[in-house]
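Forwarding the complex inputs:
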Amino acid sequence: MSGIIEVKQLTKKFRLKKSNGGIKSVFRPEYKTVTAVDRISFEIGRGERVAFIGPNGAGKSTTIKMLSSILYPTSGTALVKGLVPWENRRKVARDIGTVFGQRSQLWYNLPVQDSFALMGKIYDLEEVAFKRRLSRLVRLFAIRDLLSSPTRALSLGQRMRCEIVASLLHKPQILFLDEPTIGLDVTAKEIIRDLVKKQALEEETTLLLTSHDTDDMEKVCNRVIVINKGRIIFDDSLNRLKESYLNKKYIEITTDSGEKVRQVVNTKETPVRKALDELVKKYHVADLTVENPPMEEIIKEIYGRD
Amino acid sequence: MADKFLNALKLFLYIQKSNIKTAFLSKADAAVNVIMMMVNNFSFIFMWWVIFENKGSVNGWNFGDMALLFGVMNNAFATFALFVRGVQQLPEFIDNGNLDNFLVSPRNSLFMVSVSESTFANWGDYLTGFLMFFISGHVSVENFFLFLLASLFAFIIMYALRVILSALAFWAADSQRLGDNIFMAFLTFSSQPASIFTGWYKVMFLTVIPAGFVSLYPVELIKEHSWSALAAMALGSTIFFILAVKIYLSGLKRYSSGNRFGVR
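Prediction (whole assembly, two chains):
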């Protein structure tokens, strides 16, 4: 193996306490074992932008947490830049950046610029290089106006831009993004996707992005790994996935009278534009949305073809 | 090694600067909190002063001995609360998964957790601590250094015990209250004249709840220049510290990184 990330037969099991609510379970607890990640293997090369997608509880975050040295695996191995992450936590940390959509690495009460300065000290960055780096990222992510605001005063979208800047300050070669667009509105999602991709292309950063939003994958990544129930069920280029599975669009229109009409379009047979033209001719359209099929459906289809 | 230490020290000082900056966002608040902490300390000390005024001594201890004990205790607690209080939050970080942020840092995660919280009001404990030493009747340059040394060892014991209690959450998610109660018992017993604990109580206060290292040996060391007391404190704090780090590291292997956010 020679990738920047190498994973072989990686497995993580959690032991969970079963509780039936009775007093007996307090004194004689019973446990059940849940396999979150089940013998997965893959390799990621430098500069690849990989979407790690699957429904809730599929094992995406658990895998990222093992690769970023947060969790110890139950069995199997992984190498990040040639090092076993959970055995070389501090060394690996200098080469990786992490963004967890559900939690913040910024200091809640401090102005954003103070959080960045603190990150600079934590990563032991040389003063001049740090300032140059920060200035570049501030420009790229358009956060100059946010620097003096405390984290608590930021909107979710603003915070996420600052989180990504914080994770890039030490110029990591690998960036792990765990649900970076969770909870964001459509505009904020678009901004985050554009910025992440631009940054990754400019510095040849390897990306591993988890999401259950197929748009994240389409807009940012060039390779897709689909995981379900802890197992990898698809690992190929985005183009291949698009050809095979992402050929449906869901169009929903609301008419002037408030009626909702939903239509599924097979883009291999009918271009979206043609389908929209027909709908507009047929109805008095007040509003319309075009969406990808939900992740669950894609996975069902992948399973079906397997 | 020296480089690593200096580097950690630089980061430590920078974090403390940030903590002070945050506390000084409201200077009046900060000053009132420090003064109130001292008032709180002195109301407790006043109670003991009344007891000693009426009884003369408690099992051979006089008010000067108690002042030394309060001095050491206040200094140790001030150091804990000002610089490493974050370790008290460890059970919460384990429970809600926020420990993740510390584990992806290129620094020692226990160090980062510990310095993540500070309570500015506890500068009042330092002021109380040094004042107690100066009214204890044992003032000399040599004693002052022994007082500082005793405060340092007492702090290490206090910190190590808190790490052990907090790390229990790696094994039992609901251990936070138990840990808090044992730590509170440790603080309470550390503020009593050590002479009242003998026999099995003494064994317990040097092992399970190591309050004896704070209440017994420091006073012996400063008053009698007892080198065996110094050796006991050095050995006790080293053993407890190593044990604490080992338990923490072993707990990390069990960490499951929860995803709790915004739930009851």
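Chain B touches chain A at residues 7, 10-11, 14-15, 18, 21-22, 97-101, 103-109, 112, 252-253, 255-257, 259, 261 (CB under 8 Å).
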